[in-house]
């Protein structure tokens, strides 16, 4: 009977990054969760189309002065010579043209294309900042409530219920209507944008707070949290180093789906006259002005389509991102 041969560890161990298949010719590369999510997202052509439209809208908002300089004119410039003084509508032959790609507004003759492009700046800026505020507040309070539980969870949960029952639209109209033109060291558009970001972002955090709380309740019972506790880790360390990294996916997905909601809310406030003040162009404000001239369809069509395309693109991309980041999805 022969003695077994000595075998070193290097002859029998396989690296986790690459495993040789049965034929011995090809290595199967391991994939990270991010790579798997990207592969799933690439297969969803509708979500990719939505993502490309979102990127396009962001670029339009960032480079609005360049685009308007090439294809339009100052969005506040009046063209009274193109308006019929008797009817206050554009003269015959002064509609959509090479000089005015989307036509001109009644009464003052401002270029609709330039105002739609600049309106993207206000709508997306308010939507992104309000979403960021909601995500920060909702994540911190949601993970705190879910991790500590007990009295802390009860207080935060009841606070969420109060905010969810709050008549946000009525409050926003009242607050935005009584704030003067100068307050808190801010004036003009800066004050109105900051006010809208606060109203929309601060009162919408319970939605994401509930999602984060529910995910935290599940994660805090997992083995890696128990291991961190057994090693002496305290609450703040577990929250920021163990729980939050595992909450990035649902937070990112919900933030993507919250942005179009905020775009619609900002447009609604501007439509009701309590958003950013004229002559600064906003999509909702343009729709409000267009109501009086319903016989001129392009005046209402282009800002309405801008809102529709923006909301649809974010929703499609958000749905695809949710499917890509869901580990249970096939």
Automatic annotation (TrEMBL):
Subcellular location: Cell membrane
InterPro entries in the cross-refs: BP-dependent_transpt_permease, MetI-like, MetI-like_sf, OppC_N
Name of a matching Pfam family: OppC_N
Any GO BP: transmembrane transport
Keywords, sorted A to Z: Cell membrane, Membrane, Transmembrane, Transmembrane helix, Transport
Residues of the ABC transmembrane type-1 domain: 120-318
Cellular component, GO annotation: plasma membrane
Membrane protein topology class: Multi-pass membrane protein
Protein's name according to its UniProt entry: Peptide/nickel transport system permease protein
